[in-house]
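Duplicate of #3305? Posting structure anyway:
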C-alpha cells in the first residue's frame, strides 16, 4: 500500500505495513544523504601533463598516493587530501572548458609554506597569502592564498585561524 503523502505531512510517523516488517516513513523515504565529497577529478592532457600534475600534488604538496590503475594514456591515480580524494587521469582529449567549478580549496596548516613550495616549483601564484575574515555569523577568520595548478586549475590554500 502506498503511503498517503498528505497525511505524512501532518503526521511524520505514518506506518507502512508490509507482511513481516513495519517501517517508519521518516526512516525509509528516499531523500538522498550526502556525507561528504568523495573525490574531485582532474584530467591531464597526455602523460607529460599527468606526470607534472602528480609531481605537483604528490611531490610538492605531499598528498599520498592511495591507488593507481591503467598504463600509458589510460593511467589514473587517486591521492588522499585528508578529507576526500583527488583523482587524476592522463587521457584528456581536449582543453578544459570554463565551468561552474571555481577552484579547489585545500585545508592546510601553513598557507605561506604551501605558496613557497609551489612558487619554488615554478607555479604562478595568483593571490599572495593574506588574512581575511569572512563576514558571516560568527565571523570566520582565515589565511588564504591561490595558485594555478599544472592543468590550469585554480588551487586555494585555506587555513582557519
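Output from current build:
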Amino acid at each position: 500500500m502506498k503511503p498517503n503523502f498528505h497525511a505524512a505531512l501532518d503526521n511524520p510517523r505514518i506506518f507502512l505495513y508490509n507482511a513481516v516488517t513495519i517501517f517508519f516513513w521518516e526512516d525509509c523515504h528516499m531523500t538522498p544523504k550526502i556525507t561528504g565529497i568523495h573525490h574531485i577529478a582532474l584530467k591531464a592532457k597526455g602523460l607529460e601533463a599527468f606526470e607534472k600534475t602528480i609531481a605537483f600534488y604528490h611531490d610538492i604538496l605531499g598528498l599520498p598516493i592511495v591507488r593507481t590503475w591503467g598504463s600509458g594514456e589510460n593511467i589514473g591515480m587517486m591521492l588522499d587530501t585528508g578529507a576526500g580524494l583527488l583523482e587524476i587521469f592522463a587521457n584528456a582529449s581536449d582543453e578544459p572548458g570554463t565551468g561552474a567549478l571555481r577552484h579547489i580549496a585545500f585545508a592546510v596548516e601553513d598557507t605561506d609554506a604551501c605558496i613557497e613550495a609551489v612558487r619554488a616549483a615554478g607555479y604562478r601564484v595568483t593571490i599572495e597569502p593574506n588574512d581575511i575574515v569572512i563576514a558571516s555569523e560568527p565571523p570566520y577568520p582565515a589565511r588564504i592564498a591561490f595558485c594555478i595548478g599544472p592543468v590550469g586549475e585554480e588551487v586555494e590554500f585555506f587555513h582557519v585561524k
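Confirmed duplicate; merging threads. The beta strands are 15-17, 22-24, 39-43, 65-69, 76-80, 85-89, 104-107, 125-134, 140-148, 154-160. Confidence is low (pLDDT under 50) at residues 1-9, 11-29.
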